[in-house]
Amino acid sequence: MFVFSNLFGKYKINDRFMVFEDSITFYVSSYSEEFLKEIYDFYMGNEKVILNNQFIQLVSIKFMNLEYFAGEKQIVIHTLSPIVTYTTTDRYVDYFKPSDAEFNTLCMNNLLDKCHALDIKQDDISFNVEKVLYEKKRLVKFKNTFYVGYLSELIVKTNFETLSLLYDTGISAKGPAGFGMIEVKKSEESSLFV
User: Fold this and answer.
1) CA distance 176 to 2
2) How far is the C-alpha of 178 from the C-alpha of 6, rounded, in Å?
3) Where are the beta strands (DSSP E) in 40-109?
4) Looking at 2-144, which runs of residues are DSSP E strands?
5) How far is Cα 145 from Cα 192, in angstroms, rounded to an integer?
6) Neighbours of 154 (CB within 10 A)
7) Per residue in 29-81, pLDDT tens?
8) What is the pLDDT of residues 142-185, one digit of tens each?
């Protein structure tokens, strides 16, 4: 189980392509330390790699840690890639935005599914969206399928165990396809609008 972010950097749109002017930043997180070690070893062993038919040169690798806290608390998270939440009925897909009533339930169900797959105690899971500060719709194509996602900033009430799982696997569905990566927002940061 893993998740990855959008590409970040200064760019221009040229003939429907993003052309980055300088450097790019990219985030990857995973529940599996072995998976992260494989990525690290690959990049450390290759000075240049190919990303979407383009050679890129690795400049640096940094590791980020989630700061531990006890009990439950309200925190602000923002997305580093769009969140995708949906239900399917008779091949019809219904997408939900973070401000929809169904969003919290779908996120909680996704967390419980991840707990089942990873053999984590479901009793340790605590998650509730207290307030949606920002949401912006994004239509994203992945493997010839279009998904409706939302870049968002949320106040959530959670505990460290749940936040850690969200941090490692993404919020809601399609994390391994690059959807739902989050970052904890520091209190002194201003609102993020993408």
Assistant:
1) 5
2) 7
3) 48-51, 54-57, 72-79, 86-89, 92-95
4) 2-4, 11-14, 17-20, 28-30, 48-51, 54-57, 72-79, 86-89, 92-95, 127-142
5) 28
6) 25
7) 999 999 999 989 988 888 788 877 878 888 888 888 889 999 999 999 999 99
8) 888 899 999 999 999 999 999 999 999 999 888 888 899 999 98
